[in-house]
Amino acid sequence: MHITSDIHLHSNLSSCAKPEATPAAIIKACRDQGIRSIGFADHLWDKTMPGASKWYQPQDVEHVLSIKKTLAGEECQELSRGLKILVGCETEFLGGKQVGISREAAGLFDFVLIPPDHFHMKNYVFPADVNAPEDIKTIMIRRFMEVMDLELATAVVHPFHAMGFTPEMPYVVQSLISDNEYRECFIAAKQARCAIELHAGVAKPHEAGSGEDKFSPECIRMMTIARECGCSFSIGSDAHSPEPIIAGVYKRMERFADCCGITEAHILQL
Ligand SMILES: [Zn+2]
Ligand SMILES: [Zn+2]
After folding, report:
1. Could you give the percent of the chain with pLDDT greater than 70?
2. How many CB atoms are closer than 10 A to CB 148?
């Protein structure tokens, strides 16, 4: 597998990104790694939708789309020659129909990423008093299916990764999800024409992993089932600075994709 696209890149318009994550620096880092299709996806909550948290309030449509001005500048134009540059967003999902982007606003972006599992945002995205892996799993599967019902997401990002607990929790929760439960979710994604993100996080080394790369067997199982279900995949380094890109994050992701039988043919073309 050879990765030539990444549609989950944060610029310094995202409050949580590093100041050095200028669009130019991100484009340059990607370009040097052979990425030809570069999609910015800054955090977004559309003002016309109720429910923005304090953190999301300033990160509205106007703010996220302001990247276009920078991209039109001389430096970015020069760096992006021969590349495809896309402007998308990573919005928020609170469950049910509560999503941070209207259908109208979604039309202003090249793509929309929806995270079903930003569970670190306690008492906003996720109830603070739920800590048991079984309970987290139940909510996680429900949220995934609800995202599919929205029919808004180009891709669902970092799927089934329980954030905001112990570092081991995502894997514990994944181990509780049966093959059949995954299949139901991924078939729904295929039907909703929603891509599954191949996120940098799945290619992280894990103590249960074998071989040199020590990929998590749980992550391999999940993404292999997604591939078997006929899903398409988007690539997401989720970089918040040029650093992980320069450090070679795509190489690990390529080897991880190989372990799951995911090839260039499975990648969403935008
Ligand atoms: Zn995210
Ligand atoms: Zn992100």
Report:
1. 100
2. 22
Q: Give the CA count within 13 Å in the CB-facing half-sphere of 19.
A: 0
Ligand nearest to the CA of 161: 1
Please tell me the distance from the alpha carbon of residue 170 to that of residue 218, in angstroms, as a whole number: 9
| DSSP for residue 145 | H
Strand arrangement of the beta sheet that strand 233-236 belongs to? 5-9, 37-43, 84-90, 112-114, 155-156, 195-199, 233-236
List the domains of the chain with CATH numbers.
Answer: 5-266 (3.20.20.140)
For ligand 1, the distance from its centroid to the CA atom of residue 157, given in whole angstroms, is: 7
β partners of residue 89: 42, 112
pLDDT digits (tens, 9 = 90+) for 130-173: 999 999 999 999 999 999 999 999 999 999 999 999 999 999 99
Phi, psi of 98 (to 5 degrees): -85, 100
Among the bound ligands, name the one nearest to the CA of residue 118.
Answer: 1
- Residue 175 has a pLDDT of 98
CA 177 to centroid of ligand 1, rounded, Å: 21
Assigned token pair, 226 = 């997604």
The Cα angle at residue 269 between residues 264 and 270, in degrees rounded to 5? 155
